[in-house]
Structure formats: structure tokens, C-alpha cells
Amino acid sequence: EAFVVSIDEGRYYDAHEDLEVIWHPKRFEDNDEMRVWKGFINAAVSFELIARGRPNPSNVAWQTYRKYSVLIETLVTPHKELYVKIAQFIERKHAEVRKGE
């Protein structure tokens, strides 16, 4: 929830940190759920880089998000519905942020 609120408020660095706290201790787990979290973190990084006027690095981070976001489709987890909503929100926010470039 904090991740989504931070993104919605344009606090992209904070959004990265919100999720990093959860992801970091589990980052070596070899599963798609951890990769989805990594993708969400990269979306926040992409937004922050856009805000800082760095479009090329932003595109790299966005492509990492896209690479991992497709894993949601086949993910088996009780959190799948939440991840789908977060991904939809991120896609809408990306379109919004890109308009402001």
C-alpha cells in the first residue's frame, strides 16, 4: 500500500524504498514473485529517472519492469489480484509521467 501511495504522490524514490524493505531480505529467492517485486521497484526507479530528466536510463529500468511484469500472468500466489492491480496502476502512471516529459 505504501508503495502505491508513494508512486501516486510522485515520491518515486520513497516508493522504491517502500518495496525495497520487503524485497531486499528475500532477493536471493529464486522465484517469480521476487522477480515481480523487482519489476515494481524498477518501475519506481524509471519514474524517478524521468523526474530527474534522464530518459535513457529510465527506459532501461522500464524495460526491466516490463520483463518481470509479464510473470504476473502465470504467478500462483494469494497476492495475484493485488499484483495485477499494482501493475495496472503502474501502467497508467507511466502513461501520465511520460506525457510530462
Structural description of this entry:
The model has no long low-confidence stretch (mean pLDDT 94). The protein contains five helices and no strands. The termini are far apart. With 101 residues, the protein is an all-alpha fold. The protein has helices at 2-8, 12-23, 32-51, 55-69, 80-99. It is globular and about 35 Å long. The chain has a single domain (2-99), classed as Hyaluronidase domain-like (Orthogonal Bundle), CATH 1.10.3450.
Could you please say which CATH topology applies here?
A: Hyaluronidase domain-like
From the helix content, strand content and strand pairing, which structural class follows? mainly alpha
End-to-end Cα distance, whole Å, is 26 Å
How many helices in DSSP terms?
5
Counting DSSP E segments of at least 2 residues, the number of strands comes to 0
Which CATH C-level class is it?
A: Mainly Alpha
Bulk shape? globular
Under the CATH scheme, the architecture is Orthogonal Bundle
Q: Please report which band the strand proportion falls in: under 5%, 5-15%, 15-25%, 25-35%, 35-45% or over 45%.
A: under 5%
